[in-house]
Specification:
The protein is of the alpha+beta class and 414 residues long. The chain contains twelve helices and 17 strands. The longest helix has 18 residues.
Length: 414
């Protein structure tokens, strides 16, 4: 075999062409993992992209050869994409059928945009072998996309078809590995939560703030008890994001600003009475507010099922906290999050006492705790019912923190 043919086969196998004498410095790389991996291969004194040159007095290389750098990039590319031929797409009359088709420049942008400077990104697009790419084999979907479609189908099902008996009735499973029934989607979510350490243990003494709207500060004295400021009694519980009418839960926030943003978002009342509750025992919360980051694909430890699971979990968290217009349709739009909440509260083998999620109003941290008005007590008070146990009490009001705040009206466009 001639050297030219061997070189051509090497280029074909690695997925990128000749890199020439190019070198890239750490300053041209924004992704932390890609920068760390590139730092292991520094062997050049000048960056071809920004012109930075090593300090003569230090005499240490400041850049890596672009060829070494491209091996790191191709690890990520080959995890997410494959050639249209390997994907089994069908070519007919000048077009590919069976999946989304991308060229090498598209792939470079999908994988690396934001991780490197624009100059380096352009060079990556030129270096990747000139071929067409697909996201997955024609017979399957990318795992995070399959989960996303499963979640969308779940929302459609519980909003418009069945929301009370789908776990107890048989659903016909598809032969396609990427299709989920509603029950299968919930079981998969339950597993993803455990596999990706999304549960947070909260020690007793953690503070959550809660508020009520008021017409004037003179109402302050009316809200200095847990019964008045805590979770509402069942007969006064309205439809909410995580709980339907009649099922009382405690909604709170990490700080006063988020409380005011949440309760003042849909009202013209100018005052709020706010107060702090502290947890009375250790709680286990589903922490959708601070999920583990989606791993970088520039290291082999990031290239696995957990990458796809975390991508889905992050998008799921955004969905659960997204703004809902209170125009009457919220009774429908809240259904998926209500069903998910009830499932996670009662079905998993592990205990979940509530959830943390980001506010749609200011990105602060909200909580929903699975306790009703009887789970919120005043200092020194005993449970209101003799059958209540320590585990049924979640929160204790700190009455000295109760005060009024003025709600500042938002300026249109701000």
């Amino acid at each position: 075999m001639g050297s030219t043919k061997r070189r051509w086969e090497e280029i074909s196998d690695r997925g990128f062409g000749e890199a020439g004498d190019l070198a890239v410095c750490l300053g041209c790389i924004h992704d932390d993992t890609l920068r760390d991996e590139t730092q292991k291969n520094l062997n050049e004194w000048t960056c071809s992209f920004c012109g930075t040159t090593a300090d003569e007095d230090v005499d240490k290389p400041i850049a890596a050869s672009f060829e070494d750098f491209m091996y790191l990039v191709m690890g990520a590319v080959n995890f997410l994409y494959m050639s249209v031929e390997d994907a089994g797409l069908v070519y007919d009359e000048g077009e590919w059928f069976g999946g989304v088709v991308l060229d090498s420049t598209d792939v470079a942008h999908e994988v690396c945009e934001g991780d490197v400077t624009d100059e380096v990104l352009e060079a990556i697009g030129h270096a990747i072998t000139d071929q067409l790419w697909a996201e997955s084999h024609i017979s399957e979907s990318r795992p995070d996309q399959a989960l996303r479609w499963g979640w969308d189908a779940f929302c459609e099902e519980v909003k418009y078809s069945s929301r009370f008996v789908f776990l107890s009735t048989s659903e016909e499973s598809s032969d396609h590995p990427d299709d989920f029934t509603t029950a299968e989607l919930l079981r998969r979510l339950k597993k993803i939560i455990i596999d990706n350490d999304a549960l947070l243990t909260v020690a007793a003494g953690r503070v959550f703030w809660r508020g009520r709207l008021a017409d004037s500060p003179s109402k302050l004295a009316e809200y200095k008890t847990a019964a008045a400021l805590g979770a509402p009694p069942r007969d006064r519980t309205s439809n909410s994001r995580m709980s339907p009418a009649g099922i009382s839960m405690f909604y709170g926030c990490d700080d006063i600003d988020t409380v005011v943003a949440e309760i003042g978002a849909h009202s013209t009342r100018r005052y709020a009475i706010v107060g702090a509750f502290e947890t009375t025992r250790e709680l286990t919360l589903l922490n959708l507010a601070d999920l583990p980051p989606v791993p970088s694909l520039y290291h082999d430890t990031g290239r696995g099922q957990h990458y796809y699971d975390l991508r889905f979990l992050h998008s799921f968290a955004v969905d659960l906290g997204k703004p809902i217009t209170l125009d009457g349709r919220e009774h429908i739009e809240y259904v998926p999050t209500q069903v998910i909440t009830e499932y996670l509260r009662f079905v998993p083998e592990y205990t979940i006492d509530g959830m943390l999620f980001r506010s749609a109003q200011n990105n602060g941290v909200n909580c929903v705790l699975f306790c009703d008005s009887e789970g919120c007590i005043d200092p020194g008070a005993r449970p209101s019912k003799p059958y209540l146990e320590t585990k049924d009490i979640y929160l204790r009001l700190q009455p000295e923190t109760v005060h009024w705040v003025r709600i500042v009206a938002k300026v249109a466009g701000s």
